[in-house]
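We modelled each protein-ligand pair independently. The example shown here corresponds to the zinc ion entry; the chain sequence is given first, followed by the ligand as SMILES.
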Amino acid sequence: MPPTKIKAIILKKIDFRETSVIVHLLTDSTGKISGLMKGVRCVSKKIPPIAYQEGACIEAFVYLKSRPGLELVTKPAVLEIFNFHSDKLVLWKKILFLVDKLVPASRFNSKEIYELVFNIGKLIPSIKNHRAVEIYITEKLLFLLGFGPFLEKCLVCGSQDQLNFFSGKLGGVVCSKCQAGESTAFKIPAKHIDVLRFFSKIPADNLSMVKYIPDQLFENLMKCLNEIIHYHINE
Ligand SMILES: [Zn+2]
């Protein structure tokens, strides 16, 4: 089979043997793949290290096997460096780790997830509120992967009233009448649920409008999202 041309964000890089690297790639078209870049660290190959650096966005060719496994990746070329410093680098690394953890290593149409991560990478230099980015990307990723959070009606009875409990196991809100029967549901102020709804609806460009997220609000929203991860995504 001829190689497939891909665009990808390097989620993780591990040096392999003397001159090679293994990379986890979030591609724009074929899901997440584990790739072997043979001999790229060899000086004579003249491949700039930036072309296989964690966090970089590259174009490359991949020899896709019939089943996912370690695929051969060749001719990496940089499209976008995404080279951040200090706290912005910490945030970017956190995002790469999260995406690598949540996105399964399988073949699927990953265009939307790729664009989400790429756009966040482009926005990082201009965004001051890192909490907003963290909530936004975790929520969007979970939603694109089909895990929720589902916030419009009680996931047990369908009611739209008194939605002030959340269950990570069910993947969304539970009303105060049904919560007694759901041992995993925990209480959360309805106005905090409103903020989760807000983040699910805005485009990434609007994140710079979010000025301040108090500790308690941030903790509650991350608790909701992390509970979904805890119940549905095991490493
Ligand atoms: Zn209910």
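Residues 215-232 form the longest helix (18 residues).
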